[in-house]
């Protein structure tokens, strides 16, 4: 899904059809380095013991800076932020996730 829309109340829903993603175009994309934004998601892991990206954002124009929300191969929720040099500057670990159980992330 590619979006050129911005505003309150916008959402997208992805189903179990393999690898799916949303691409925010140009000016509608949050600033990966200095901007403020919030994300919210409902996730239900169907696979465990594997690294799975839930959400990520990067700015390839300025270097390696990125924000990644993922489930680790140890079934743990994790948020990682790296800087332009690719160095990890923040790593927050959340709870362990169970297979086929819904979780609200915000």
Concise overview:
The protein is mainly β. Helix content is 0%, strand content 37%.
Features:
mainly beta, 106 residues, two-stranded parallel ribbon, 4-stranded antiparallel sheet, 8 strands
Write the layout of secondary structure elements.
Layout: E1 2-3, E2 23-24, E3 41-43, E4 52-58, E5 66-71, E6 76-82, E7 88-96, E8 103-105
Description:
This protein has strands spanning 2-3, 23-24, 41-43, 52-58, 66-71, 76-82, 88-96, 103-105. Helix content is 0%, strand content 37%. The chain is globular and about 40 Å long. It is an all-beta fold and 106 residues long.
From the alpha carbons, calculate the radius of gyration and give it in angstroms.
Answer: 15 Å
> Which band does the percent of strand residues land in?
35-45%
Major sheet characteristics? 4 strands, antiparallel
Low-confidence stretches: none
């Amino acid at each position: 899904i590619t979006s050129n829309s911005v505003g309150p109340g916008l959402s997208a829903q992805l189903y179990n059809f393999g690898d799916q993603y949303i691409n925010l175009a140009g000016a509608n994309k949050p600033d990966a380095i200095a901007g403020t934004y919030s994300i919210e998601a409902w996730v239900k892991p169907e696979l465990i013991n594997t690294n799975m990206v839930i959400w990520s954002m990067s700015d390839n124009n300025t270097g390696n800076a990125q924000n990644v929300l993922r489930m680790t191969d140890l079934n743990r929720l994790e948020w990682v932020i790296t800087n332009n040099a690719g160095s990890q500057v923040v790593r927050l670990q959340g709870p362990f996730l169970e297979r086929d159980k819904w979780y609200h992330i915000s």
